[in-house]
Fused MFS/spermidine synthase
Amino acid sequence: MNRILFIIVIFFSAFLLFQIQPILSKELLPVFGGGASIWTASLCFYQSALLLGYFYAHGLGYLKLKSQATIHFMLLAIAIGTTFYQPECVMGETLSPAARVILNLTLQVGSIFVLLSSTSILLQRWYCDVFVKEVPYHWYAWSNVGSLLALLSYPFVFEINFSLSEQKLGWLSAATIMVVALALLMSNLIRHANNTGSESTGNALSHHPFMSRCALLWIALAACSTLCLIATTQMVSTNIPPMPLLWVLPLALYLVTFIIAFALPKQGVHFIWLGPLVFAWLAGVMMYFIGGQFNALAQLAMYSLILAICCLFCHSQLRALAPTKSQMTHFYICIALGGALGSVFSALVAPLIFEQLLEYPLMLLMTLGLFTLRFDKPLAMNKAKGLAIAMVLSCTSLFAWLNGQFNQFNVATDRNFYGYIAVKDVKTAAINERRLIDGTTVHGSETLQGVRHLTRDYYHADTGVGRALEILKQFGPLNIGVIGLGAGVMAHFGDEHDRFTFYELNPAVYQMATIYFSYLKHARAQVDVTLADGRLALREEANSQLPTKNALIIDAFSSDVIPTHLMTLEAFQLYWRRLQDTGVLIVHISSNYVDLMPVLSAHALSLNKSLLVFDYQGNDITHLGSKWAVMTSDPRFLAAFPANSHRTINPESTDKLVFWTDEKNSVLPLLKF
């Protein structure tokens, strides 16, 4: 019975620990522009808090059992009372976006996360001490099962059926119940220890050298698997919208490999691992360069397979190196330290030292390198190790050559919290132009032939936005707001008496548009650029009662990623506060992976607006297709369009309506597979 109670508490503490991660990260999406790096920064916090929890568990072990239980329960009770605390006076505006994400999470769940993360280790050690048993490492698998269930249930159950406020309230209630159950278990343990005299203190803990070769391998293997997890998530989220489903799938795979590795008996390194690891490297390099050409399902499948191979190798080697009871907390601390180092490198260091997502191929090479280190025999006596080292060197050389070929057209590149962008001069028999590329998507181009005209990309006169602006000009001067700057192509549509206000979140995009493209410099209209999240900037304008606009253009996708906070009902209500009664809302909805029409149809129905769709099919590589939606209630504007130029959507007769609000939205029902 005691074993079952231990497993139940460990299971539910892990469930709570991993369920709160997508809840809070999703809540932060609109605050930081909806980018993929929010999850990367969140994982940095979670891994660092996990390390603190393991240190806390290790330090608590030097006290008597009753003191450990009393202190742990009191701290848990205090932490429950301060969970989700968000002081408005502490915003950290001077910090980097990643640091602000970490600060926000620290204030909301820092204390409870640290304490919950220590629960599994504390219970395993208390069980060993009180019942005089060996370390039940298979309980680590049960802990990961709880974590896995929390992750998989979130996008399919909790995100779809409950608002964020309901999710947080439910989590806090469950955490309170878990703390009460843990208190009862601790009470039973203390009573059993007093009756049997089996209580021990931390004096029995081993003073294992922290920097031994074995400890360094623990750290390196854990760091490598964490780097695999975060780099894979970053690669997937570059093209597919960042959402809890895409966050939890790689993390779930990461945990599955932990479960498999720690549920099986110890196994050493085998030469057979070389084949899968080399395959993972080759497949990873292919996805790194051309992954964006595949559909969402193919990308998820390939990235998942690569991640599973690399993480299973790392975690199986951790299991093979797992120590005895006396070094248990030291082992877990090293795992947590490796995880923290891997996440800090991915979230904070890599964006500073790499202008591309080079941590992804780096982690593939690191995994191969660790494979060579796990052979203990000298190189001369071990042909397998020599072959592995040769493979690492060959793979490094091949990647360097491929990367040089891939970047040969680059004029400038930049990478920050909001993504990776590049300016490329593409010169072929059919193309001679400069392009701004965000991730894998072209966000504006300009001819290199010295003739300024719009015959290419998503913004030429035949597209929905071009047709809409042409008609608006018939009614007078334009006062346009554009969320998303890109290369500044939209400024080309303005005339002398027009005014265009761009709202751009990423400072690097503004820098590229100003230095490498001429649209802003040569615009005939008055052009203003506001460096801020478009929704927040429009809210400030609405509160300041600035003059309304006759059109708003929403074109803020980063790569193929859609900021969901710009597509909720509350966002659309704000847009109409900034528009005239006869205003027009124009939304760019081209996406390889998400069908936004059910959301727009639902908003049109809620706001009583007409909805037009312009789906322009490009005819060659120099004439790109695009899909635009236009929402308005102006009869003059609607009557001005030829009947064959668009499709009119009747939301009332639409079978599929998806209502998005700030509190409740999910991309899952809209994915194109």
Summary: Confidence is low (pLDDT under 50) at residues 201-206.
